[in-house]
Structure formats: C-alpha cells, structure tokens
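Supplementary Methods. Inverse-folding protocol.

Structures were first reduced to a discrete structure-token string of length 368. This string, shown here, constituted the complete conditioning input.
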C-alpha cells in the first residue's frame, strides 16, 4: 500500500516492492498527541496572589518510535526549538548496518527532501513560517519492515509589546484600598510557556503563567491585586514576560520588560509628635506631619492662631491645639510644650529680650 502525495521515488519504490513476494506493509501508527491543544475560550483571568500557577514545561516526545526500541533511526537534534522566521535543520540517520534496500523518508513542515536509499537524510528550511509541532522520519524496507521516529518542533515568537497598567482605574490610589495591576503581553507564541513576573521596584510581587495552550501568536493579560500603603507612594511597578522553552531553547530565555509605572498614593494626614514635648531654650519644635497631598497645619493657643519661631523661649511654653488638614479630612491634636533652661543657642532668646528692654529705656529717655 502506498501513501498518496509522496514523491515519485517513493512510488517507484512501492511498485518495485509489489512485484516481489513480500509487499511492503504500511501500518502508519497514529502520531503522538499534540503538545499544543486547541485554544480554550478567552475568559477574564484574575489569578490570586496566594495561589501561583505551576510553571509549564515542554514535554519531549522526540525520538519516540511507533514500534519498538529496535528501530535504527536517530534524529539530531532530538528536539528542535526554533524562532518563527529563523532557519531550521534536522538530520535523520540509520544507525548500524542495514541492507541497501531501505528507503529513508522525511515528512516535515514546509518542504520535505526527496526520499533516499542513503544512510542519512537532512531536512532543512531557510525560514520557519508555519506554526507546527511535529515532523516524522520513516524507514521502509522491501522485507516489509518499517519504523517511524518523531521530531518535536517547537516554534516560538517573543512578544512585540509588554505593558503594565491598572484595571478599571486611573489617577492616584488611596492607602488601604485594593487595586488590580495588569500586565498585557501582545503577539506572543507559545503562550503556554509564558511566565509573567510583577515587580515593585526591585522586589518580586508575584509570578504567573498563562492557562492558554494556543500555539499561534495571541494577546494575553495577567493580573495581581495590591493594597498600597503610604510607603508605596513614589515606587515603580513593572512587569516582564519570559518564554521558558526548556534546555533545547535559547539561553537565557527571551525576556521582554514593560515600562515603569510610578505610583501616587494619597494618605494621611499623620501628626508624628508625642502629646508632651520638652524643648530647650533656643531650640526649635521638632514635630513631623506627613501626608499626600501635603497637609496644612494650624497652631492654636489660648483661642488664638499662632506661629512658633525657629528658636523658642520660655514664653512659648503651654498647651497648643494642632489642626492638621489633609486627604482624609481634618484631625485635631493636643500638644503640651515645656521649655527647659538651656545654654549656647538659648542666649539668642535672652539677648533678644535684653536688647528689646534696652531699646525701650533709650526711647523713654529720649522722650523726656
């Protein structure tokens, strides 16, 4: 039995065999299961941060015969990983001694070489322009023996663009609220071997893999949820897409990174000061107010709005009401300030009072 579509050399080989007492048996076994299944429906993928998906691996079904281990065929390389548009080559050879009436045949993507009675046959293409996952080499004999060996062909393509953004959100974030970061990877194959890693600055947030098994280029989006704090204000979020193609693939694996996304987080106001504060004469009041946007601060003493100078004196002691107005509204704080005796810089305050007193006496003398 001859298979239609084979080259004329194979047909002549079959006719020659039909004239003998033992016709060639053509029991072509079913090919191995495809490594890439048909695409599933495209749902919205929002994986959890706490349950990472397992990293996919490329199964190696290469160099597997359809009969038994006695098949003398060997393919080199045993597995072929090629970038779309690049050249590809594989050699099928017969090991050991065998009769000269064995016919070696390739069934491969794009263009198969002519069958030969030689001990080896090379399949080669200048540009891999099909999304295939398998090629086969046959060994046929006039004695009715046959064997087939399969070559795993992995055709990949790095993504054109990788970008990061927020899902259904624009503008600043608010501390304590949940937001969804999404990493969009465009025109990538094989998406089933894609790992997307999210970063906060140089820190890894999470790594995710795609659930899809489409072997042609697709667009995919993976997401993680974040709850920002005040410490996230100004940090940069970004993501990178990596194609993990196994030991036979390019080393290091192809990686494409996104742009940096600078976070703006609204928080506060926060008044960072103890309820009672001791300050030496001549020193300044050291209390911090944090918030984004920048909070406004108002000091009230004895019912009047006041402002404290850089160098405090004893007259500045007492209880103050501090009004801090920021993103989350206005907050009131009570602050008691105690002025301690000091030296050095404290002399500025005392000298200032002496000069004022002397100036008053001079003015009084002049009037009299």
């Amino acid at each position: 039995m001859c298979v239609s579509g084979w080259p004329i050399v194979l047909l002549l080989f079959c006719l020659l065999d039909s004239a003998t007492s033992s016709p060639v048996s053509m029991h072509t076994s079913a090919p191995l299961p495809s490594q890439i299944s048909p695409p599933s429906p495209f749902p919205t993928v929002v994986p959890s941060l706490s349950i990472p998906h397992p990293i996919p691996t490329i199964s190696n079904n290469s160099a597997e015969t359809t009969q038994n281990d006695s098949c003398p065929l060997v393919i080199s390389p045993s597995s072929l990983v090629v970038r779309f548009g690049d050249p590809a080559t594989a050699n099928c050879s017969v090991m050991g001694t065998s009769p000269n009436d064995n016919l070696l045949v390739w069934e491969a993507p794009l263009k198969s070489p002519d069958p030969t009675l030689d001990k080896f046959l090379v399949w080669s293409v200048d540009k891999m322009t099909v999304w295939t996952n398998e090629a086969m080499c046959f060994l046929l004999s006039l004695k009715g023996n046959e064997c087939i060996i399969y070559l795993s062909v992995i055709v990949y393509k790095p993504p054109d663009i990788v970008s990061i953004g927020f899902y259904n959100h624009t503008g600043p974030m608010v501390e304590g609220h949940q937001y969804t970061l999404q990493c969009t990877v465009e025109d990538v194959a094989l998406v089933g071997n894609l790992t997307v890693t999210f970063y906060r600055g140089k820190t890894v947030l999470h790594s995710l893999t795609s659930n899809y098994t489409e072997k042609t280029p697709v667009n995919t989006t993976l997401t993680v949820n974040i709850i920002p704090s005040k410490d996230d204000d100004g940090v940069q979020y970004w993501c990178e897409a990596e194609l993990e193609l196994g030991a036979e693939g390019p080393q290091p694996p192809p990686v494409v990174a996104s742009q940096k996304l600078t976070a703006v987080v609204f928080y506060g106001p926060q008044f960072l000061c103890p309820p009672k504060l001791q300050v030496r004469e001549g020193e300044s009041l050291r209390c911090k107010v944090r918030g984004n946007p920048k909070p406004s601060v108002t000091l009230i003493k004895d019912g009047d709005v006041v402002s404290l100078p850089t160098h405090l004196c004893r007259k500045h002691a007492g209880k103050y009401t501090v009004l801090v107005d920021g993103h989350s509204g206005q907050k009131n704080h009570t602050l008691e300030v105690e002025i301690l005796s000091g030296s050095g810089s404290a002399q500025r305050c005392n000298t200032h009072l002496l000069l004022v007193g002397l100036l008053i006496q001079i003015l009084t003398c002049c009037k009299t």
